[in-house]
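Good morning C.,

I know you're traveling, so I'll keep this short. The sequence:
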Amino acid sequence: MFLTTQQMAVAGVAGPAWGLKHALRDGTVVPSRTLVWCVGVRPDPFVESLGLATEKGRLCVESTLRVPGRPEVFACGDAAAVPDLTRTGEVTAMTAQHAHRQGKLAAHTIAASFGHGRERE
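The tokens, ready to paste straight into the viewer:
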């Protein structure tokens, strides 16, 4: 079965994706070997309402994920403009891969602030 882009947009992929088939909103099951999920990302508008420095709607943070001038505040994922240590002057993209690494870094940094381990970048 082949669905056009317009048909996919109307039908929408909703529900579980099993090995070689995917369920659409209308209950139709489509056989497939691949599921491509494309999502637009944007920071939550709440971030800009905090009154802290932002870059393109994301909280400015140091490489340790601390908000400058607020050492008790950490941010990561889509809410944070995290410096990209491999590209000077750039921030990391808003992707799950970066958010996953940033979550681990935030956990280590918070633990270090309580005397467990040392702070990382």
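Safe travels,
E.
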